[in-house]
Specification:
The complex is a heterodimer of chains A (336) and B (311). With 336 residues, chain A is an alpha/beta fold. Chain A folds into two domains: 192 residues, Rossmann fold (3-Layer(aba) Sandwich); 65 residues. Chain A contains twelve helices and twelve strands. Chain A has an eight-stranded mixed beta sheet with strand order 6-7-8-3-9-10-12-11, with helices on both faces. Chain A has a four-stranded antiparallel beta sheet with strand order 2-1-4-5, covered by helices on one side. With 311 residues, chain B is an all-alpha fold. In chain B, helix 5 packs antiparallel against helix 6, helix 6 crosses helix 8 and helix 7 crosses helix 8. The longest helix of chain B is centred in the C-terminal third of the chain and has 38 residues. Classes of the chains: A alpha/beta (336), B mainly alpha (311). At the A-B interface, helix 2 and helix 4 of A face helix 9 and helix 10 of B.
Chain lengths: 336, 311
Amino acid sequence: MNTNNDIVLKIENLSLKFHTPGGIIPAVEDFSLSLRRGKIHALVGESGSGKSVTVKSVLRLNPETNTEYTSGRIEYIPSEGEPIEILSANESTLRSVRGSKISMIFQEPGRYLNPVMRVRQLLTETMMTHLKVTKQEALEKAKDLIRLVELNDVDRVLASYPHELSGGMKQRVMIAIALSCSPDIILADEPTTALDVTVQAKILALLKKIARELNIAVLLITHDLAVVYESADEVSVMYAGKLMESSTSGSLFKAPQHPYTRVLLGAVPDISRRGQPLLSIKGNIPDSADRPTGCIFSPRCPEARDFCSLSVPAFESLGNNAHGVACLRTRELFRA
Amino acid sequence: MRSMDTIRTIGRLLLRLLATMLLISTIVFLLLRLLPGDPAQVIAGIDANPADVENIRNSLGMNGTIISQYLTWMGNIIHFDFGNSYFSGRPVSTLILERLPVTANLALLAMVFTILTAIPIGVLSAVKRWSIWDAFGLLYSQLGMALPSFWMGILLLLIFSVKLGWFPLFGAQGFNSLILPAISLGLAKSAVLVRITRISMIEELGKPYIEAARAKGLVDRRIQYVHALKNALLPVLTVTGLQLGGLLGGAIIIEQIFSLPGLGRLFLTGIYQRDFAVVQGSVIFMAFLFSGINFLVDLLYALINPKARIS
């Protein structure tokens, strides 16, 4: 089922650094990930783990003046035509991909929609940039899109300014904009974090429906494991800019291999442990100026051994191809 | 629903305009009566006989109880009647209307100059930040703010009227005679507006919706001049409105330098001659003009900023 034809985006060994007045910060190191058509791939990690940076790299939205892509490739593979390597693409190629083939939705829809533009204009401008349509055609399509994201009262929504809509409605508008040019990929940067729990569930259901019915690959960034459990087909776990574990969602929740993943799962409140203290992970994500040697998680790892701080674990698949992990201890146990 | 909002906004602004005008009229009325000294006596001179003083007092509307004076005063203002000039004997409102076109044209031309220079320079500075363009913008605004407008006026007169002879030296002789005064009047405003445009634009360009616009694949020009500029213009517009009011004040000095027969000259001559009716009338009229302009600016602001319509 997972033939290579399904793959629409490949991030391979991506490393990038930020140049800041305080020095050079390695934000992402040796990160790989593939997206498949019609599937939701969740990228999980704590705040500051480099999730957003990674996802923005796919559209090269990180500020070019201080971002240095030190190695790796990001390859977008359209169903027709030649693959496009994003990191080496020129500005006009990038623009033709952005919003058209690969689109993005953001965490706080209220801040990411221009406050002085009506929904109608926000929707049609993307289509008129990328598709050869007249204003009238774009407007007709805008109405269809508003219905597609399950908003009623189409004309009123189109005539509204963002602040006249609720948070959930704004996120639906954002999704409609993302869908307007029939993209292959949607990057969703914490799309439900700023929303009420009930609205969250509806937005996730909508994303799922879109992925399935329109055969779109969704890269869903989140720190919320409940969101992953509910919606993702595949999961990658990120820690301090590095890939820790990657697997299908079922396999990861059933048998997490990386101690970090296990700790992360343990930190989710569970009704059956009512009355007991909530588990938390001791310590913080390491300061980028003072990174530990060996495995980057080893200082906080409950299962760390001496050798963990000596060498950096490579990311390797375990037995079958689908489940991979970057942990010396796990490999030791797996081989034994 | 939307048009209801608009009507309510206009209503609210109109109400505020009327309240301001009422307050201004009352304050000017009180000022003349609370200040020490008797204006009628001042006009007539110390040696004047009491009958003359009484006559002048009558013509100033300063007889009877304070309440009846106030009511007459307000009634006259509603009819645009500010009394007669003591010296020329003509109605102050006629004098004002005669002089108004010169000042209004001067202020408008100065405003046009301000907007046409400040917005492009400010936007260019912001878009090409830390470039030679930005340095030019900075220099322009520093100089514009540092040089006094009367000095600018004299300098421009020397160069363009005396040496080059491109513009008339004094007097109101059509459009040509307003260009130099408008530039000297507008330069300082323009200098301030450049900074405000630049800062506002830089702030907007750093906002999340700009990142979203980039993610949509829009060209930089559209992102800068449609998405960012539309938001950046809101504070610029507010300041422009306030500046337009300030231009009326600035016109008083500039009209002296360029010998333009405008409102400023009328006002100043009124002060020199102790022509109370003229001074009062000019003050009220300029204050009304200022409020009226602010009303229009607020209206325009509500028109381009959807959020201002409801609050």
